[in-house]
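RECORD TYPE: protein structure
NAME: HPF/RaiA family ribosome-associated protein
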Amino acid sequence: MHSTVHELPEVRFLTSGRVTEDERAAAEHALRTALQGVRGSIASAGLTLSVVADEALPRPALVQTVVEIDGRKVRAQAAARTLPEAIALLRDRLTVRTSHLRTT
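PREDICTED:
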């Protein structure tokens, strides 16, 4: 059986709150890293980055992604104290969720 690794299409972004261009770039890099080596056709990829300006919240930074691979949607999300921390958690979670789709 022949397996093909496809390039990730342009990532769609939705942001809320104070999100810098560096954080957007870091989130896209994390997404691409998590999907590296995934078999199948990646039709779409989206990232949502949100930061709530409320110091009382324990995890005000939220990152979510939805990736369509071979017609199936794979979702992952992570909340943390800071956006960089949430991005790292998202990368790890998406890597686990797509582990069965990797080439060997």
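COMMENT: Residues 12-101 form a domain with the Double Stranded RNA Binding Domain fold (CATH 3.30.160.100).
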